[in-house]
TrEMBL record:
GO MF annotation list: copper ion binding; hydroquinone:oxygen oxidoreductase activity
Subcellular location: Secreted, Extracellular space, Apoplast
Encoding gene (name): LOC107484776
Gene Ontology biological process terms, A to Z: lignin catabolic process
EC number(s) reported in the record: 1.10.3.2
Protein name, per record: Laccase
Function in brief: Lignin degradation and detoxification of lignin-derived products.
Pfam family, one: Cu-oxidase_2
Keyword hit for Cell wall biogenesis/degradation: no
Domain annotation Plastocyanin-like: ranges: 10-123, 136-288, 409-532
Family: Belongs to the multicopper oxidase family.
Length: 550
């Protein structure tokens, strides 16, 4: 591989959407941000220079960061934030991965506008395991707020209530034709030729919503998820959670039709709170041969999307994902496990601070979220990885995160009376190369909701999934240990569970959290501390000299 140098200047950019103009935080004055393009095996250096007043970090979501945990990006986990007028160079090598991922800010809600695609091409002369596309097109979904998203989250945390929802979804930064005050400029037009195959690299960078996506009168063939190849399958609609990526092949019609086609995005939502129930749109437009007049006023055909709470569709769709698992890309699912964990994931409450009134779910409480009833509290004077590496963990974090819930209850039945969570900073310590199984059990406290869980530093295998309470005696019999999908983000179904496995072969401190930003803000997080292995290439590299200080 070669070394690729990027500079990401964090700077203000005035953006107008839905007739509201506001200065947003951007990378290099682009919204969405510029794509990071590299090949498998390349080393990537990204110098991030902070020209704004907010503290910033960038996370390279889904990049394995093998022994380079200092470059992972979550604030106070693997680094202190880059302060105003400071810079930090993220330095990592892309090993054993190719496909679509995303980069995004990983502090507070700055991801609302600081995000962009990561495109990892296969090594030179290595073909895709599917038809070579005529063209590749990144499609990135986001959420637009007419006000500053930082004000939205700080208000929610102060009052303890649910946050204000976004005003629009966006496709490549544009909301499309269905909003009041959208102009022609606000709609993405994707021009395609007839009789070709396109590779759409679809990314969900939205803050808080899982999204359905469909193109009128066209079929999509899924070929990759989270930068791992899948067995190809056809679908009219995809579901994509924040943090997930899905590559699909789009075969265009053999002849340019006399119509245009809507590409629509709208949420999948099972919770009980409020959400942005709007639809973003873009237009797929065929180019017509130059010797013919371009037809005018073509009709716009609309796709049929599943209903907002279509859990049935989602369950069937999710079950179709299987890893490619051929000779070239064999499945590396751990067949045996050394350590088993059972984590509840869901919402809860925390007490309202004295002398304040809170707008939480019950009288004088605040919304909170937890893993095994512990709501994760980030340190502020030192990052977790620095605390570990400099042997100053004492007082910064504890290592007794419970491997099973301390007070078990009927997770998907009537919730217990006491839904209060505890706040703490606890990690699970894993020896190098431990094979791990985690059952993530959704809870029905304050309403069942699906949670897209994301693991840093690893891809994991989704070996099982179900509804209700996980049954240790029966459910493992049905686990797929042949070709389970390999991902970095997977949805824990509402009032259900998933079982994941990974091989802890990457030393460092690795965040695992719900990728709905509001749930991260409320503490639906835990972290793994994976110890160094015996060999030199199994140890965390020394910290870079320009690592930011708190
Ligand atoms: Cu894409 Cu910890 O996040």
């Amino acid at each position: 591989g070669i070394t690729r140098h990027y500079t990401f200047n964090i700077e203000y950019l005035n953006v107008t959407r839905l007739c509201h103009t506001r200065p947003i935080l951007s990378v290099n004055g682009k919204f969405p941000g510029p794509p990071l393009v590299a090949r498998e095996g390349d080393r990537v250096l990204v110098k991030v220079v902070n020209h704004v007043s907010n503290n910033v970090t960038i996370h390279w979501h889904g990049i394995r960061q093998i022994t380079s945990g200092w470059a992972d990006g979550p604030a106070y986990v693997t680094q202190c934030p880059i302060q105003s007028n400071q810079s930090y160079t993220y330095n990592f090598t892309i090993t054993g991965q190719r496909g679509t991922l995303l980069w995004h800010a990983h502090i507070s809600w700055l991801r609302a506008t600081i995000y962009g695609p990561i495109i990892i091409l296969p090594k030179h002369k290595v073909p895709y395991p599917f038809e070579k596309p005529h063209k590749e097109i990144p499609i990135i979904f986001g959420e637009w707020f007419n006000v500053d998203p930082e004000a939205v989250i700080s208000q929610a945390l102060q009052t303890g209530g649910g946050p204000n929802v976004s005003d629009a979804y966006t496709i490549n930064g544009l909301p499309g034709p269905f909003y009041n005050c959208s102009s022609n400029k606000d709609t993405l037009k994707l021009k395609v030729k007839a009789g070709k195959t396109y590779l759409l690299r679809i990314i969900n960078a939205a803050l808080n919503e899982e999204l359905f996506f469909s193109i009128a009168n066209h079929t999509l063939v899924v070929v990759e998820a989270d930068a791992s190849y899948t067995k190809p399958f056809e679908t009219h609609t995809i579901l994509i959670a924040p943090g997930q990526t899905t590559n699909v092949l789009l075969k265009t019609k053999p002849k340019s039709p006399n119509a245009t086609f809507l590409m629509a995005v709208r949420p999948y939502f099972t919770g009980s709170g409020t959400f942005d129930n709007s639809t973003a749109g873009a237009i797929l437009q065929y180019t017509h041969p130059s010797h013919k007049p371009t037809p005018q006023n073509l009709p716009l055909l609309q796709p049929t999307l599943p209903p907002i709470n279509a859990t049935d569709f989602v369950t069937k769709f999710t079950a179709k994902f299987k890893s490619l698992g051929n000779d070239k890309f064999p499945s590396k699912v751990p067949k045996m496990v050394d350590k088993k964990f059972f984590f509840t994931v869901g919402l809860g409450t925390s007490p309202c601070p004295k002398n304040t009134t809170c707008q939480g779910p019950t009288n004088n409480t605040k919304f909170a979220a937890s893993v095994n009833n512990i709501s994760f509290a980030l340190p502020h004077s030192l990052s977790l990885i620095q605390a570990y590496y400099s042997k100053r963990s004492n007082g910064v974090f504890k290592t007794d995160f419970p491997s099973v819930p301390i007070n078990p209850f009927n997770y998907t039945g009537t919730p217990p009376n006491n839904t209060l969570v505890t706040n703490d900073t606890k990690l699970v310590v894993l020896n190098f190369n431990t094979s791990v199984q985690v059952v993530l059990q959704g809870t029905s406290i304050l309403g069942a909701e699906s949670h897209p869980l994301h693991l840093h530093g690893y891809d994991f295998f989704v070996v099982g999934q179900g509804f209700g309470n996980y049954d240790e005696n029966k459910d493992p019999e049905k686990f797929n240990l042949v070709d389970p999908v390999q991902r970095n983000t997977a949805g824990v179904p509402a009032a259900g569970w998933i079982a994941i496995r990974f091989q802890a072969d990457n030393p460092g401190v690795w965040f695992m959290h719900c990728h709905l930003d509001i749930h991260t803000s409320w503490g639906l997080i835990m972290a793994w501390l994976v110890l160094d292995g015996p060999e030199p290439n199994q140890k965390l590299q020394p910290p870079p000299s320009d690592l930011p200080k708190c």
